[in-house]
Design goal:
Four copies of one chain form a homotetramer. By secondary structure, the first copy, chain A, is α+β, with helices and mostly antiparallel strands. The first copy, chain A, has a single domain, classed as Cyanuric acid hydrolase/Barbiturase, RU B (60s Ribosomal Protein L30, Chain: A). Chain A is 28% helix and 26% strand. Chain A has eight helices and 14 strands. In chain A, the strands form four sheets. A four-stranded mixed beta sheet of chain A has the order 1-4-2-3, with helices on one face. A four-stranded mixed beta sheet of chain A has the order 5-8-6-7, with helices on one face. The radius of gyration of chain A is 19 Å and the shape is globular. Chains A and C meet through helix 4 and helix 5 of A and helix 4 and helix 5 of C.
């Protein structure tokens, strides 16, 4: 159980740690950082070394328990930045609740289990443990964010050498399978789906999802890094969160409705965590899109560019966390949305579930 | 002076002419088509053969006077489609005005003049002639849309062989120079800038622009194809137009303000013609974007993906005309916007200049 | 049974038909053309409209029986060009044999059969028929070149709507599956593999291949276009062919050995038909390559660029036919190679099987 | 004056330092390393963070005087690897000469001087100093390798803010200008061109070049890192070098001729340092290439893929140093070539200038 503050700082490159200065100016130290959640400016796909560079830069500067999650791809208007979740248990008596966070990692996910039940269950179990640590009602959880591994061609070759079939022969596709397994693990741990549904989904059915799951994959790690964000009456700080869902990649209404709820609560949006994907059906609202047939730009890059513009417009600046590939993170073609916002202490704390889907 | 109807039809590919069926169903023939303005699904850059394919498919099916403008690039949610501007001088007595269009082409733009005064003046003169044909007040013009040539590496080599320096050594950059010259020609013909300003702008200053100019470049033609859209009291049809400006690539407010004006007039948006670009400063609202340093995806592709999502959200479907590279088409980093809308004849016709920038 | 000449003409773009002038200058007419085999300058992947443009340009200019095969992708040094196989039964008494060709098409390949037994068998049967027409010994066949369809996202969605599982969910991957089925059909018809081996290969085993198969896939057709090239003692012309295999993507020795055989026979290389691919193992000669983990450039583009340089160096010019994706067209990571060459009539005709693998 | 050994080690990623193990196994320590010259697997263009990651990983592990040069882009068959130049002054009496190296850095190159005379002169002066240190005849120098900065969009915006015009508005183009300035500085210091020629070349004329210059640009540094390789009679080791020139991007003969010289001297190729570029004329040997009109893949990536295949074929493995963008590094469209080879001590040492162009 840790109350948190959020520090969002633009970066000049993946290896920019000037956020540490802002952290220090705010009176905190690197040891107080629970998680660094960043958007870096690579392609967000398999060979995105901007993520690796960011992780290599940040990891040695943080405490041993902290996690890093770097999501590549700042297509379109998106601004590279980091979000620091900083432990802060100062008690502000004007608030009867506040935002809490917990972080952890699964054991190493062996390539054989990537995108499969082993990964799903590892995520489920680690999230479950974090929920116990947080001691919050499941309904008060608004985001479970996971960074998970992928299969490299070295992994795939090594598995073939052992006669083991990888979940995919294609490194880019392995990212999707990894995100799927992580997201289903989250949905399981939140009690949103049952085991049978999870297994059917893992096998390819897109009928189950969580609007609180956000998973991104990368070559820079072999475990899953996990962050859970929730509200809790056990702390007192001005941060709140709500979650909702974009039903397709230009569902501006979902974002503006959520913003209206925040405004109605006297809040100010501090950050949006949004998942984006191209509709697997090849159409959106009945019209053909071309993201899946573009052999020059991967579909996740298209989706981030599109959704990023909407999120930036709603937040008012482009330092938003928009991550591509929303398998089981919101309905197919849509994406999960978490809004972290700050309320004026003068404003009455109210239930925040009205806008949620 | 020709009153027009607008037919917007999704396409299954650049060579899809099923719009001709819709045209026929509406009682018109290909000879009635003034212009086919399409979005095709190539990269929108130099080697975009989706434009050439569309032009090769459509040109022989239209009358000799008709023009085609194919703008490549349907990044993100954008839906490939064609917009047919169909001559229709039927008189609807419930309307005291309506939308008119005129089309034409400049003479061939020699490579030596591409991106230079020769092209600018050719566009200026052809637009001026079209304005005379239309016989409308300049303030009633809401869109001048141009398709203009670019320099291929063959052109550049040929010029070097003659000892002539091309406006750019880089084929992709030549598209920007061509759009710039066209747009300044438009601004001149609309009386928005003077000759000195135009020349300074042609030399690189981004201080002059038109919010009614929309230019796209391609290898599939050697003249400039030009369409002028205006309102006129000399015809009576339900179409109207207004123009405004996005001040940056996520200026959703500009689009939503325009939509509110349309709604206030009892109108329904039929099409958005929007130019998109990445801010040449490298920042938007003070935050860094990465469109200009992404060596994998050209900046125009990023910009279309971002702006396309906003336009689709505002129109409610993704068959919107969003074109990349907005040199002198709206302020730097922004883009010109034209909204074509349809009013209910029951609704009182009112001035439409309120929302314009 | 048709003796053929080969006319290789560079193109200024996918819609360049100046080869017709060279054809006319050579005394032939478009009706004499059996096949146009071209390299066009698109991405060679799913959304490559350079192929469609070329086909749309050439098809109406040729006789009803002629086929076109356009292979996209002229990466690296490769020069866009067309190869016209022109029927020519003039008898040159100085030759006791010559090159013959036959062309045909399969029935439409329904999406349900794409990449599956149905496609494989359709190719097998059509090739078998062409071999009968040619009346040559199987050993005298040196190239079976196929252009085959792919799955678009529209196809995939339509199949899902009918509850049918496509051979792949990924449009780019469907190209590989289509090439595989075509190539196994070729290998079957040439008696190089048996049915069981073919079926195992179709299911994913890369242990069977033909060094005479060359398949490329595209969205521009729904049947498979097929060309068979062989030598025959029934005609008398100066063209000959041989085939061999690159064992990996920089197996220059294979090409230079073949060139030495040609030289030894007093011949001059007229064209190389080479398949290229990135080693599926992720390594070549024990060292890692990065073609399969590059999310910005598809692996087939990398492979064409690499192999194209070798083929150009050996031929001495870059108008070589190098096509990407060599599933079952040569061993994994390698590629089939056919050399068409011209012998000096003064030179004694000799067996050409020495260099073949 | 330092005799050197060369250790070439494949890498599993940009941050792979297993070469240190090989170094240790060979009896040396990181302090003995003069330079790490690596090929990393990014796009080799502006936003290539594989270079930054490699530099961030290696720099802290080396002595203060050592330099790193990471060249991005392992297109086609190229294998990511590092080349360690290790000081080794052991005296092998069977050799009357050997390979020597010197390394250094220029002062910081301010953005205002990037691609301009300031950078050119800084490189010239630093190379001159290194030549003095080496105390070798200019003819014995076979490679001057430079890693130089580029302009980011932040740099460009900052310069505009100060009213200073950058050498290019385009970040990718700035890489070419930086390589050009570095290469001309090298040519000056080697006495290959005079000041007037250098200045004319800097202004855009491609009539001057050095076949010993190899420059690559990156965002990961603000000085120029420089390595000079030469032969010297003052040391005794088995390494030798020669240099030559590819006259175009498939000039295999140049490489094979050099290999023949090495073989004639009883040598074995240890490494090739080759520059690659797409012919600025748009044609190679009279045929059109499409590298300059491909808006999806930058020309340097195409060129590396093509030339890399040739170099790998000649060396026999793909861990070759092929770097893209050969402005003034060999003639236009060609590229400089340095071959480092090892001679059998039993073999008589002979002059190595026979093959040089």
């Amino acid at each position: 159980m840790t109350g948190v503050r959020l520090l969002t700082v633009p970066t000049a490159g993946p290896d920019d740690t000037t956020a540490l200065k802002a952290l220090s100016d705010s009176g905190a130290s690197p040891d107080d950082v629970l998680a660094v959640i960043g958007k870096t400016e690579g392609n967000g796909c398999v060979n995105d070394f901007s993520r690796t560079l960011a992780a290599a830069t940040w990891d040695p500067r943080l405490g041993a328990e902290a996690i890093t999650v770097f999501s590549g791809g700042t297509e379109g208007v998106l601004a590279p930045h980091v979000n620091l979740l900083v432990a802060d248990d100062s008690h502000d008596p004007r608030h009867d609740r506040g935002l809490v966070a917990a972080v952890g990692s699964t054991p190493v996910i062996p390539p054989d289990e990537l995108g499969r039940a082993g990964q799903m269950e590892a995520v489920r179990d680690t999230v479950a443990k974090l929920l116990v640590d947080l001691d919050v009602a499941v309904d008060d959880v608004h985001l479970v964010l996971v960074k998970c591994p992928l299969l490299t061609s070295t992994d795939i070759a090594e598995m073939h050498g052992r006669g083991v079939e990888p979940v995919s022969e294609d490194t880019y596709e392995s990212m999707a399978r990894s995100r799927a397994a992580s997201s289903l693990g989250i949905a399981l741990s939140l009690g949103e789906i049952d085991d049978d549904t999870a297994r059917a989904a893992l096998a390819g059915r897109r009928t189950a999802w969580s609007n609180r799951a956000s998973a991104s994959a990368g070559a820079e790690l072999d475990t899953c890094h996990i962050l859970v964000l929730a509200e809790s009456p056990a702390v007192s700080n001005p941060l709140r969160a709500l979650h909702t869902e974009m039903t397709d990649a230009y569902d501006l209404a979902a974002l503006q409705d959520a913003a209206a709820v925040v405004a109605g609560r006297g809040g100010r949006i501090r950050q949006l965590f949004v998942k984006a994907e191209s509709a697997p059906s090849g159409t959106i609202r009945g019209l053909r899109h071309t993201m899946l047939t573009d052999s020059d730009i991967n579909a996740t890059r298209h989706a981030r560019a599109a959704v990023g513009a909407l999120a930036a417009a709603v937040k008012g600046d482009a330092a938003v966390y928009v991550s591509g590939g929303a398998e089981h993170q919101g309905r197919p073609g849509g994406g999960s949305v978490t809004v972290v916002y700050e309320v004026d202490p003068a404003h009455t704390a109210t239930s925040n579930r009205g806008a949620e889907r």
